[in-house]
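Researcher: Following up on the earlier apo prediction. This time include the ligand. It's zinc ion, with the SMILES given after the sequence.
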Amino acid sequence: MSSHFFDGSSPKRYDVTLEVWPEGISFETERGALNWRYEDLTRLWYYRPGQHLALTHRKHQDSRLVIEEADAISSIRMHAPNLLNRGRERLRSVRIAAALAGGILVLVAAIYFLVPPIADRMARAMPWSFEEKDAPELVQLERFIGTPCTAARPNQVLQDMTGRLLAAAHFPHPITVSVTDRKTANAFTFPGGRIVLLRGLIDKARTPNEIAAVIAHEIGHVVNRDHTERWIRNNVLSAATTMLFGFNPTGSVGESLFQSGLALSFSREDERDADAFAIDLLNRLDLDPSGGAAFFERLSRSGGLGGILPGYLSTHPESDGRADYFREHGTGAKQALSPADWLILKQICIKTGQG
Ligand SMILES: [Zn+2]
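Model: Understood. Below is the ligand-bound prediction.
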């Protein structure tokens, strides 16, 4: 058993005799004496007791010193324990990192799965004024979508129909429904109970109950406090993300509400809940659910092909079976408007309409 040295520039193997010092290792080669200080040395691979120790020098990385003498290795271990243990330390830190990553993963999973139901309950307990305080900014946003349709008689018809739905909803705060002159078929609910239907929705509806079903669905979002819920969820998630990763990728709540198009869409869970609320409301008023069913049927048929209602689809994620859900759970038989009132409602944007 001896030690040998490869200088890195030739394949020659030099047998060397080592001297181990508290500061480093000295050995003679044909080219002269070398003094390797421990602080400049790196171990080449994981050291196991009973095997050789292979070292290289930081400044001569092609060179190799392979030490086979057990007593030399134990002296080196005594003077420079890190040189031999670094691998174990690294292994330990890998284990710690893995445990930490696992912990973070569990925490993230907990946050993502536990926060939504908690946020749902918390949202309903938050004061209503919390949603109303952004009203001025939201009115600006509504104006940006389009001009309000103000035709008097059609608006009266709309308010009467909405009033019947709201009376059955028993929500203690005011909810408003208005129509904006835009040809896209869509509907939005803004914080503070403001429901905005786009003209395209009314243009494309074949029965008044399609509109009633959409309004009932949007009332569901208001009553379920889905805006507040999302606000809580976003905040808890971004606080958790900031805590874990030290940065906040979601921005402020204001940003997430006003700047992102996604701000007006809710989760599938929220959509299902709003559907459940809607069908219950239609049943209470004995309204025929087939309007809602037909609406969602056309919605799912329109797919991503730029079909009948692509706008609505983009803010209300499609879910299979929505039409069936309305048909199966609906018990009513009436239309929400008389044929005459339905024709009047269809004229709601006529004065400001762009054709
Ligand atoms: Zn919705």
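Model: The pocket of zinc ion is lined by residues 217, 221, 266, 271, 274, 316 (CB under 6 Å).
Researcher: Noted. I'll compare it with the apo version next.
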